[in-house]
Design a protein that fits this description.
This protein is α/β, with parallel strands linked by helices and 335 residues long. It has ten helices and 16 strands.
Amino acid sequence: MKAIGYKQPGPIDAADALLEFEADTPELRPRDLLVEVQGISVNPVDTKVRGGRPPIGDIGIMGYDAAGVVTQVGSEVSLFAVGDEVFYAGDITRPGTNAQLHAVDERIVGKKPTSMDFAEAAGMPLTSITAWELLFDSLGITEGTGQGESILILGGAGGVGSILIQLAKKLTGLKVVATASRPETTEWVKKMGADHVINHHESLIDQLNAIDIQPLYVAALTGTDGHFSAIVELIKPRGHVAFIDDPKTLDIKVGKPKALHFSWEFMFTRSMFQMDDIEVQHQLLNRVSEMLDSGELISTVNNNLGPISVETLKAAHAEQESGRVIGKNVLSGFQ
């Protein structure tokens, strides 16, 4: 099968940053599906892995979002059958989705939304899982609650922010304040449903004071290093902060006077540690799929860069690293 990978960590503009090669068809574990990949997307984790982690094997295959068709099932599979159309984000400890065929544990796979083509569907899983787990696991919010309280989302126009805004609006009573800094990202965040949009290049405290909001919850999706002191100052006592980025250091002792809760969200944790509740990701992806098909959620995909190739993937990585991606970039299958 065709696959695209990397031999050593490095910058995307290196001549050998990404390579196309012939790989063996993956061997299936008992709960695995073999999926013919017909769409993928690119996430920040792709660029972090390519730029800083030695490959798994001689050539590492990245890719942590896919949509495709099940072509084979493992001996203990019970949730899917050959021919099913699926979408999922995969497992960071295994070879990724930038290949014609991909093996994935069925317990982290959902039914592809019927209203989307494969490329568009591939733009939804990783960010949806991250946003869902951040909201309901990391922040500990319960569906249908939150009336009278607010959540501040730092980085509202990115992939996770785009779906997090929607989930918070559709499944909780929270008022949503999200950050954006450019006219086009501000409009995008409004489209996603934010109640208020503020600029993360200006004082968060002054802007929240101006609209008389003190959030109980903060989702720090990007720029935590620069905003941490403001987060601690503006959040309500006994508030909850969840992070997904990688701040170099955090002095969480400053949160003690307010008895703040701090947690990280990492959507690969359940698969990486084979947690007992791993099948939660299958269930939530099916729920997201139903909500997309019903129109309760809207697509966060903003750009299809074309079929998977070294050139299109390099372009997608470069754009992701620019920090200017709005929503999600996707690619269709190999030609």
